[in-house]
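Appendix B, record 7
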Amino acid sequence: MTRSMTKAATAAVVLLTASVALGQEQATRPGWTFVPAFGYSTTFDDNVTLFGNADFDTSNNDVINVYTPQADLTFLSRQTRVNAGYSGSLLDYRTFSIFNRWDQHAQVGLRRMESQRLNWGLLGTLSLTPSTDALNFDGIPFSHTGARAVNVRGTVEYLVSPRDTLSTSLHRQQVTFDRPDELLPYLRGGEALESNTSYRRRVNARIGAGASYSLRHASAVDAPEHLTFHASRGAIDFQLSPFWTINAGGGVDYIPATLITPAQSAPGWSASADWSSRSRRFHVGYQRMFLPSFGYGGALENRELNASYHSPLFRNRRLYTEHTFSLRDNDPLIEAPGRLRLRTLRFNSSVGWAPQPWLRVEGFYSRAQQTTFLAGGDIGRNRFGFVIVTSRPVRVQ
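Structure tokens (predicted):
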């Protein structure tokens, strides 16, 4: 499922990752490659405490210096790719020093091609974030509360024939919050285990079709019920032109009844369009589905619109601009105390300059806004600043 990225005070992480990826592209020879990197950013934040819009004045803003060391180690051979990486951002608030802390991310992955038909992979990620607005999970209200997210995913893909592909994946997810008593109803945390199997057939050079089925078991901390989610989809991919690709899928989402909640079912569908021309890229998509909530527990209906655009500036490959937008509605399927309706908007815009492959400078603006549709339940956050990142791949003999 599609998820958008956010740029907050840790915007250095995003650009730093892109810089390391650039270094990896330059080091594609077999063997080990080590990519050390360091980023620095200065960010102005107009709502550092994540209070509601009616609850603060201008004294709630601050300037944050962010120091971001990162290291990435990659091994590449003819059939195997191994990667491990870490980035940690030290958030240094000039006024609200009580919020000084680390924002940390780590990952390790393995990709193996056993034959021309069979490949498989493993990926594990860990993130420690200082506030929930930096997370990209559904049904979670904005709060200046620390969170830990652990994800482990395994995938297998098999080429049945030149036109037919069968793939399956298993995904384990766990979210834990720092839980002061007043936030217990809204930030429970929990875990989920999901399997997904899909089939794709290339009908001709322009059209592909297929189907998928996913099964997810999820539970929230202290929740009295464990939920099971079934999602069946048919899908079609269409190459409209050398530049445009359209993807669409539709089916049924179903949640069986538990001892305390009735069965739920509804249509689930998604549609997206992608355009690319040289270094310019555009994407727009919409999806509707049932998902578990790690915030207040239970199940929710998720509706999400997202768009992104990337382009060089003035026909100069060293200058670029990038914009992302997402609007997400999360509605609880069962009304109960603490189960909030949430509407979340995120917008990120940046202009960058890469004078050298190992150096990037970027100015950015981001807007995060969320409403619970209750009195005093609107939270808005604006951030802008700049980022400087340096990185250089090193061959390990």
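Remarks on this record: The chain has one domain: 11-396. The first helix runs from residue 11 to 26.
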